[in-house]
Amino acid sequence: MAVPIAHKSRRQLATVLFLAPALLGVLTAWTGERSPLAALVLWAEPALLFAGLYTLGWLLWDRRIFAAAALVAGCVLGGSILRMPPTAETPDLADAPWADRLRGCTKLPDPVRKSVRVLTWSLDDAPVSLEQLQNYQVDLAVLLGANSPDLAEAWAREIRGEALYLPASETREGMALVVRGAFQYCAGRQDSWDIPLPVGSGERARAVLTFPEIQGAGVVPFLAVQLAQPGTPSSWGGWSSRLVDSAASIGALGYKINPRRLVVAGDFAAPRTFREVAAPLLGAGLSEVDVPASWPAPTVGLHALDRVWTGGLWRPLSSWRLPAQGHSRAPVLVDLAPAYAQAR
Q1: In sequence order, which residues have a C-beta less than 8 Å from that of residue 342 and are 6 or more positions away?
Q2: Is the whole-model pTM more than 0.90?
């Protein structure tokens, strides 16, 4: 009887090892990232992969080939489900009722004449080397978490451009924009517009629309984004749902003001596996630029949290990750060229 029992035990182990990762992927995809548990799984995907590889190594060492094959099949199936491409979702235009008056700001300027270089960086409370930033010849930058305007203003002076510092209302961390050129006034004497985003206790989130004119290139409608990081423990349950709602508001704004010329960059606070965050941006006519992982900075990146999206009149040329200078996030640099129809 010992042999059949051992054989049955091996089959049961193989079944569990196959079904566990596969069903985890199915459950996560079915509930969506509005579910806190699903959001946790999506965030922990690299750790789950490491655990799977460790278990696989142990099974191979123990010569349990059938169980190891079942684990590999289950992980491949579950991982494929988690990484299914998002489906475009038409934004609810009621989320941006005031955006109609800014449509002319994206239509009236002349077409962009040459490629532009965009930098997005989420900062900690640590020093930044201005010399290193200048070496990369950045045309347009968004610095998230900046606690004073000094760095942005010094950078703007060096490149003969302009800085726009937007302090946070409840924390020391603000947002700074720097352009090799000037921020253009549109629809009056205002040069930036805040888009209200949902936040929980202890969270901060904002999106700021500007119309910088880059020297030698032209006016680029630019939306700087900082979605909410998890705040106090009492707000964790609804955090992922607020990310999805924030993305819906951003998508609605982009759709209303004509997304073809728009560039969106900043901290999306979620990796690409958060499909529901991408859905309204795709539905608005935006495409995500393939950028390297920015977090964690001291090691090989696991998640691309600082991301860039563009409208149809842009063509991504290249993207790369820069040294983090002691910060937990690495800066991400992207080169964008006007598409052929725009370049003409």
Answers
A1: 111, 112, 261, 313
A2: no
